[in-house]
Amino acid sequence: MIGSRGVGFGVVVVLVLAGVVAGSGRPAGAAGCAPDDLGAAGLHNFEPAPVALSGDGGIVAFVDRANDHIVVRDVRTGAVEQVDPVHDQPMMAAPSLSRDGTLLAYVEVHVISSRGGLIPLPQAYVLDRATGARTEIAPDLYPWHPALSPDGRSVAYLTDLEGHYLPDTLVGRELASGQETVLATGLLDAWHGGAPLSVSGARVVFSGHFDPRRPVGLHLYRRATGDHREVTPDPPGRGRSPRLLLDRRRVTFRTGLAGDRDNPGRSHVLDLATGRSRVVRPGALDGMLSGDGRRVVYASPEDRLGQNPEHNVELFRFDRDTRTTRQLTSTAAGRPSLLAVSDDGGTVVYASQRNRDGSLQLAVSGPCGG
User: Second label for 339, Cα 20 to 30 Å away, from 8, 185, 346, 365?
Assistant: First the structure.
């Protein structure tokens, strides 16, 4: 719930490169190397997206549990950089990356006390990692959940225009000119249920609702018409964590409740032209589609490849072009919960084992052993 500092859940987050067995840090059937431990990461109640993955799969960003600073990791080189805050002792949260990982958007949160309890006040920034230039977004409007477009030209964010310290308005900003456009107002529960925004060119998909009698659903803003409409299919009748695919004609989303790792809901893909949706991987416990729509990563206890005789819940990747399946994890701790998949499906971020202190233990499994 917005309004208090806290930790929603604690898990181990592991990043998997194509063909690597992430649970052990080994490719299937090969003697391998240990995963690269990045340290513990925090997860706050106002931070629906604990990890950001660039579309090309090369950069991952997360919040360091030790000091609430954002850490950026280059998956290809292993280089690590820490993003220091602008102000003293804030909590940093909600990272978002451009497709190439050059731009990083995030928020710094200061918590103040009031009669109603603790109130988090965010400040949002876009950092150019190549030059070090940092731009503050809407300094007086309490911006939440900034989401960068893949090309890094624009950012959308939620803000509070009603004075209730809850995000109720969606705003788009062109980074080069600084021009801002109000995309939607009167939005309810926009923060509820996973990363609430997905930006791609002239389209923004966001979650929330405008009618308290309706469940949290999906809405599409189109710059060409300057309006928005609900696109939630019925059934399933609710939607969260939207992600526009590269073709900008399809969007993936989840049903279920955010933070409920025992019942995370199903992952669906929606055709915006026809309004039809389908489950990403029928029969699987969880599933995500790559940005190009060609690969499906899913969690299942299946053993069709003969590599999972104990029927543990493992991660698999199905290639729609070649009709082949590959097991990505081995003896994964607990039930993997998918967080992010790169545009080509070659890099996967998932959450696994729960930590006692409520933190996320991040690790990267690299392509070792062939």
Answer: 185
Tens digit of each residue's pLDDT (9 = 90 or more) over 25-69: 333 333 333 345 555 555 555 555 578 889 998 898 988 777 778
**What are the residue ranges spanned by the domains of the chain?**
12-365
CATH code, residues 12-365: 2.120.10.30
Q: Among residues 262, 268, 279, which one has the least CA distance to residue 335? A: 262
C-beta atoms surrounding 176 within 10 Å? 8
Supply angle C-alpha 78, 336, 22, rounded to 5.
35
β-bridge pairing 36-41 and 217-222: unpaired
DSSP string, 139-201: TTS--EEEEE-TTSSEEEEEE-SSSSSS--EEEEEETTT--EEEEE-S-BSTTSSS--EEEET
Q: Name the DSSP letter for residue 369.
A: -
Amino acid type, 14: V
Residue type, 72: V
Reported in sequence order, the residue ranges of 290-352 that DSSP labels E, i.e. its strands, are: 295-300, 314-319, 324-327, 337-341, 347-351
How many whole angstroms separate alpha carbon 339 and alpha carbon 343? 13
Q: Which residues have CB under 8 Å from 157's CB, separation 6+? A: 124, 137, 138, 143, 144, 145, 146, 147, 170, 171, 173, 197
DSSP letter at 209? B
Q: Is-contact 43 63, C-beta < 8 A?
A: yes
Whether 300 contacts 293, CB under 8 Å: no
Express each pLDDT in 83-126 by its tens digit.
988 888 778 888 999 999 999 999 998 877 777 777 778 899 99
Amino acid symbol at 232: T
Residues in Cβ contact with 131 at an 8 Å cutoff, skipping those fewer than 6 apart: none
Rounded Cα distance, 100 and 197, in Å = 19
